[in-house]
């Protein structure tokens, strides 16, 4: 399958693994890239630019295919050393960066001067247009279904993707709720040139997370995610658990008076213990509604092969036979 995205990134299949905190290490990125997709190392999971440089070097040992690094621009007072991380990316010879969060405008010159292709992940048509106007090469359009931060507009992909197609000139991939060949074909039908997946890639053999995390995704249905932190305008879709129930109770009780301090125990610094130790009720962790479509833990290669085969079958047989 050849699309503007496979051409842009020099990959075989139009499937991207989005950056994921404490999941997107070299092992997963390399496995996805070796399977013909685009794997992504999560920049900020690495404590320092030097650590990111090591992770990039490790990924290079595991694959000779293209891979990306995710840079998430957080709304924090003490900003991470973004110029340092970008330097590690440039020196590591990485040619694709997935940006997310705030606009990457300030860092575009540094990225573009190094010949890096930038795909910005955003949750609205207006942010996609902004990304296009500042020189991003592509966007990842992240619908309300997505695991992680869906923004505050609550527009599902069935509307958001065709709206993006109406307005954008640069290519875009569908993100949020994508799991299989059906997702890929429908995303293409709505105007996308490929798909970005987060939650689906956590439930794979190579994802370097505790088995409990993978089993929790397989066990979950589409009814099991919750939105938290809406009163802080930092909405996050997470898998329900005891800690998330506590957050939801506090949000109900405090309403607009909720502050970050009220939920700090459930959200701050919990990722390493959840993802690596498998302490599943410790805190809130991002997970998409798509968990309802995830029933197994295949290798990345089997997953991607299956997706492409199913997509081709749908296009050649199911859809063709309806004409
Ligand atoms: C556990 C987890 C952690 C994530 N961490 C990040 C992150 O650090 N930066 C980022 O840009 N996106 C992050 N995401 C979002 C994913 O890259 C992707 O956009 C999203 O998962 C797509 O929705 P899906 O889960 O329905 O496939 C995370 C998602 C998950 C599930």
UniProtKB/TrEMBL annotation:
It comes from the Bacteria. This is Nitronate monooxygenase. It comes from Halopseudomonas pachastrellae. One of its GO terms (molecular function) is nitronate monooxygenase activity. PANTHER family: 2-NITROPROPANE DIOXYGENASE, 2-NITROPROPANE DIOXYGENASE-LIKE PROTEIN. InterPro entries: Aldolase_TIM, NMO. Keywords: Flavoprotein, FMN, Monooxygenase, Oxidoreductase.
């Amino acid at each position: 399958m050849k699309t503007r995205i496979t051409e842009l990134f020099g990959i075989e299949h139009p499937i991207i693994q989005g950056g994921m905190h404490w999941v997107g290490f070299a092992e997963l990125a390399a496995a996805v890239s070796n399977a013909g997709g685009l794997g992504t190392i999560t920049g900020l999971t690495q404590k320092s630019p030097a650590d990111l440089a090591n992770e990039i070097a490790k990924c290079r040992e595991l694959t000779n295919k293209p891979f990306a690094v995710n840079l998430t621009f957080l709304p924090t007072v003490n900003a991470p050393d973004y110029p340092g991380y970008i330097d590690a990316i440039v020196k590591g010879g990485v040619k694709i960066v997935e940006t997310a969060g705030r606009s990457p405008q300030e860092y575009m010159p540094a990225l573009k001067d190094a010949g890096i292709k930038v795909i910005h992940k955003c949750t609205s048509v207006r942010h996609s247009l902004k990304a296009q106007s500042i020189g991003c090469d592509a966007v990842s359009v992240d619908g309300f279904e997505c695991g992680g931060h869906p923004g505050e507009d609550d527009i599902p992909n069935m509307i958001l993707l065709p709206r993006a197609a109406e307005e954008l000139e640069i290519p875009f991939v569908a993100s949020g709720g994508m799991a299989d060949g059906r997702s890929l074909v429908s995303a293409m039908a709505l105007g996308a040139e490929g798909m970005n997946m987060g939650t689906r890639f956590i439930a794979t053999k190579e994802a370097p997370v505790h088995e409990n995390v993978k089993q929790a995704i397989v066990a979950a249905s589409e009814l099991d995610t919750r939105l938290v932190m809406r009163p802080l305008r930092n909405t996050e879709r997470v898998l329900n658990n005891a800690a998330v129930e506590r957050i939801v109770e506090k949000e109900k009780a405090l309403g607009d008076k909720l502050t970050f301090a009220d939920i700090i125990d459930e959200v701050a610094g919990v990722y390493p213990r959840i993802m690596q130790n498998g302490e599943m009720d410790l805190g809130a962790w991002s997970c998409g509604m798509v968990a309802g479509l995830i029933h197994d833990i295949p290798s990345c290669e089997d997953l991607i092969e299956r997706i492409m085969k199913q997509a081709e079958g749908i296009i050649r047989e199911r859809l063709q036979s309806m004409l």
